[in-house]
Amino acid sequence: xxxxxxxxxxxxxxxxxxxxxxDGPSEVRVDHLGPVVPAPRVVxxxxxxxxxxxxxxxxxxxxxxxxxxLLAEGPGEVEVVAEWEGERVAWDLVVELRxxxxxxxAPATVAVxxxxxxxxxxxxxxxxxDTTAADWTTSDEAVLLVExxxxxxxxxxxxxxxxxxxxxxxMIEVTVHP
Length: 178
What we know:
Number of strands: 19
Number of helices: 0
CATH topology of the largest domain: Immunoglobulin-like
Radius of gyration: 30 Å
Shape: rod-shaped
Strand order of the largest sheet: 2-9-8-5
């Protein structure tokens, strides 16, 4: 006769798939368009990269996945989400494009009385952008006048010309000789 109240426990192993993890920071900031490098990786708990990840983005036009590579497509903030077998990880991508401004073939010297058109080149996130709304200044109006990109040499000396557009600026030194 078996003793009353005997409980037999049988251990059963439950197989759990590795959990989905984010390998990298929870926020990434970039100042250019194109591949986001380095981007956080999505891995399983054992370090393997899962196949069949489903990607989504909280806002269109900021980022996308193409051929397995995360691309910054435009300025803004977006939540990047990866899903796999019911699990989900997310992180934030902030795309703040840097504007770079430079003079194109600017003269280092001019003669008194010369009038020269100055030209700018600008990129934002590596993509060419318009600079027609640039603001122009000169460090010494007795030597050089600059108005809307037109430089006028007034008197001998040296002055600096600064152009500002889209939050960036560029400067050149110009010497005026007699």
